[in-house]
Amino acid sequence: MPLKRKILVVDDEQSIRTLVQRQLNSDYEVFVAASGAEALEIVKKSPDICVVITDIKMPDMDGISLLAEIKQINKDISVIISTGYGSMDMAVDSMRAGAIDFISKPFTIETVKYTVKRAIDSYDSIIMIKVLNDGLQDAYRNLEEAKESLETKVMERTAELSLSEKKYRGVIENSFDPIIIFDDKMQIKNWNMGAELTFGYKESEVLGKGVDLLLVDEKTKGLEQLKEKGFIKNYVMKWKNRAGEPIYVNITASFLESGEIFAILRDITQEKRIDQMKTDFVSNVSHELRTPLTSIKGAVELVLSGAEGELTDSQKEMLKIVENNALRLIKLISDLLDLSKIEAGKTEMDIKPYNVAEIVKGTVKEMLPIGFKKKIEIVYKGPDFLPRIFCDKNMIKQVIVNLLGNAVKFTPENGVVTVRVEEENKDIKISVSDTGMGISKEDYAKLFERFQQIDSSSTRVYGGTGLGLAISKSIILAHKGRIWVESELGKGSVFSFVLPKAKDGDIPEEVPAVLPVLAPGEKQVFSINKILVVDDDEDLSKVIQNLLVREGYEVEVAYSGLDAIKKAGEFNPHLITLDMLMPNMDGYSVAALLKQNPKTKNIPIVIVSVVYEKEKGYKLGVADYITKPFEPAQLFECIRRIELQVNGEKLKKKVLIVDDDPDIIALLTVSIKENNFSVMNAYDGMQAVSIAKNEKPDMILLDLMLPGMDGFEVIKTLKNDPETKDIPIIVVTARTVEDRSRAIKLGAREYMIKPFSLRTLVEQLKDIFEMESKKD
Fold first, then answer.
1. How far apart are CA 288 and CA 291, in angstroms?
2. Nearest to 701 by CA among 676, 673, 725, 727
3. How far is 694 from 690, CA to CA, in rounded Å?
4. What is the pLDDT of residues 739-770, one digit of tens each?
5. Is the pLDDT of residue 450 over 70?
6. Which of 205, 294, 504, 589 lies at 20 to 30 Å from 381 by C-alpha?
7. Which pLDDT band, with edges at 50, 70 and 90, does 464 fall under?
8. Is the link from the previous residue into 755 a cis peptide, with omega within 30 of 0?
9. Mind giving me the DSSP string for 64-118?
10. At what angle do helices 14-24 and 109-145 cross, to 10 degrees?
11. Positive or negative, the Cα torsion across 107, 108, 114, 119?
12. Tally: H helices and E strands in the chain
């Protein structure tokens, strides 16, 4: 009678251990443990245990920690995670940490038996491959050592290899995980049952076919890495099944001595779906919670301001309680959602080059009043200028605020908090040190986990959710940096993080906001008086309307996309606030239609939404972005900023640069914009004439050597047109000085030969504009 396979069941609930043991005893030898520590003792004493089923939440040691410890003892053991609905994200994390599968409570015994069988198959696959590998190595070694009995030993070894190969072949063919062998041209040579079940093709249909049959994208980095390094391990790729549906697989593959590629795949499509469910959940929660909170907060602020009549002291006190608790709830929800978005890679980062010393100094200055309340001195130590880093300024500021807030919180009165900024090889290092209670080394790892505080009593004493450091860690990792703590009990702590210095070419392309433009010759000052509020939430719309009306704006409200398009044409607003998440027609569609309509295309649009997709909005032409919940001051500041920007653009002189060399155009554009001029570009003569007629620039910088229509013909055409004849033209060219008289005779104002001083060019522009203004 064959020996039963050994299985260990770990769960702190006696009923579950008893149930699983009773149901599996007929087929397996089942051990049980009530804790992680007990489980580890059993694994050490019974090295032939092949499967461990463990609960993910246990008092002394959670399932993920137990998984790591088991893998240290015997990395071949297949571990199945048992989890409740609320721990699904932890289950996914455990799969990434090395678990073979997971089952959700409450589970049926059929599910347990099926999952255990798969785990044993996986275990057998690993062991059989090891056996085969050991057998092959022994064969080669023994063939070299024993030449005299070559024939006999070859026969013996051949028999052993045959047996190993049969075992290996059986393991491969019967594995539920896809196992595929490719030749050196990436054509399929072996296709097991798991591959058939996963991809829907029978072996006879795929043998000899190329891997591109399964690939969604033929240019796959994983395959390139395999060819380059000779192996890939736990590489996630997107393939497709027979029906063309996407299948996400985790691949471990390497080259065999024959040159063939041996690949073991695991279908993780379900994990991906769970990740997407988490993302969708975050989006829905963000909208469903932030929108009503914005309404509550805004309504309370309006009432407290006296807009709805005088309040008694008691009424003010009660409303202050509502306001304070709304703010606490907003902070908690924002932290939770921010952390989820960062960890899921869904946060849009506004990456730009910054001198980090300026960010740190500015943040320290803002935090000084908080330290002053506790009689704690906050000191900045570092240079004024450092090599730039590419970062999201607000995110890095959030990290510094979190670290400084914690330092002040846990430092007693009359203490000192010091912020240091310094260069460290290829990084910039920022440290926040305090003279507080300190932290034991055993608690270091716990600090950066979600909802973790060193002592639960500190939550009651100091407040906080335990999310600040987790968010900080996620932000720093997203910036390709690292964060850590050093501390000594009774002496204080030092929290540090490093960010890489900037490299040339790292700046992402910036998409500018689109603001209204003046019609040719228009000189009046732009002023925002009429505002259209677009939001499907009636309560929030009324709050925003009341805030704006109180400030003297004329306001109309639209509760749908179609209503917004209609009212934008009838009301002719100077500005539109637009929510993104609306039924039937979302905000992006509304913005796109408004920008396509000549009557509404120049109206500034401000996105006011829980959805933070700034780049997408800017590409549609929106002027600014405000994330719910927001302060009234943010909205008013946004309105003032748009007025200033528009008026500034209207007052700027417009310069048209005409050159077929993109580098010259880029150089001139930067230099001229820095001197507060507006810039347009043309790359040939025909385009220059068209822009000049339509846009009426105040000045033209013109190269003479242009494709098609050359510079001389451009001057002649513009000077013969009544609409463009008075535009001053400066020739900037590499042609000889002999051409100067011809260009001046045609009507050019000045003639400059490349290379020339940019400073001289700018001074020339200013001089000509000054002369033109005196004429007016």
1. 6
2. 727
3. 6
4. 888 888 899 888 887 766 677 788 888 888 77
5. no
6. 504
7. low
8. yes
9. HHHHHHHHHH-TT-EEEEEE-GGGHHHHHHHHHHT-SEEEESS--HHHHHHHHHH
10. 60
11. positive
12. 26, 27
Three-class DSSP category at 307: coil
* 106 cis-preceded (ω within 30 degrees of 0): yes
Residue 574: pLDDT band with limits 50, 70, 90:
very high
Task: Taking residues 529-533, report their average pLDDT.
Answer: 93
What pLDDT sits at residue 483?
Answer: 92
Query: Are 724 and 696 in contact, with CB atoms under 8 Å apart?
Result: yes
Q: Quick one: pLDDT band at residue 458, thresholds 50, 70, 90?
A: very low
pLDDT, tens digit, for every residue of 586-619? Answer: 888 899 899 888 889 889 999 988 766 666 777 7
Mean pLDDT of 267-283: 75
Nearest by Cα to 112 from 7, 32, 192, 36 = 7
Assess whether pLDDT exceeds 70 at residue 354.
yes
Query: Which pair of structure tokens corresponds to residue 463?
Result: 């407040």
Residues 6 or more apart whose CB falls under 8 angstroms from that of 492 comprise: 411, 433, 434, 435, 436, 437, 438
Rounded alpha-carbon distances, angstroms, from residue 443 to 265, 439, 454, 455, 489: 38, 7, 7, 10, 11
| 164 close to 137: Cβ distance less than 8 angstroms | no
Give me 761's structure tokens.
């060019």
Instruction: Identify which of 16, 49, 50, 33 has the alpha carbon closest to the alpha carbon of residue 118.
Output: 50
pLDDT at 63 over 60: yes
Structure tokens at 228: 């380059």
**505 pLDDT more than 70:** no
CA-to-CA distance for 708 and 326, rounded, in angstroms?
66
Instruction: Write down the mean pLDDT value for the chain.
Output: 80
Of residues 148, 117, 149, the one with CA closest to residue 50: 117
The secondary element (H helix, E strand) that includes residue 210 is none
Residue holding tokens 């076919």? 209
Query: What are 630-673's pLDDT values in tens digits?
Result: 778 888 888 888 887 766 555 568 889 998 887 778 778 877 87
pLDDT for 113: 86
Give me the torsion for CA of 537, 540, 546, 549, rounded to 10°: -70
Distances (CA, A) of 771 to 724, 728, 766, 775: 18, 11, 9, 7
SS3 at position 418: strand
Tokens of 556: 């109309």
Burial class (CB in 10 A: 0-12, 13-18, 19+), 701: buried
Contact by Cβ (8 Å): 418, 381 = yes
pLDDT of residue 705: 85
Would the pLDDT of 554 be above 90? yes
Rg (CA), the chain: 35
Hunting for tokens 């039963």 — which residue is that? 4
Which residue type does 464 have? Answer: G
**DSSP string for residues in 556-606:** EEESSHHHHHHHHHHH--SEEEE-S--SSS-HHHHHHHHHHSTTTTTS-EE
Q: In which residue are the tokens 């010393």 written?
A: 357
| DSSP letters spanning 447-500 | HTSTT--SSHHHHHHH---S-HHHHHHHHHHHTT-EEEEEEETTTEEEEEEEEE
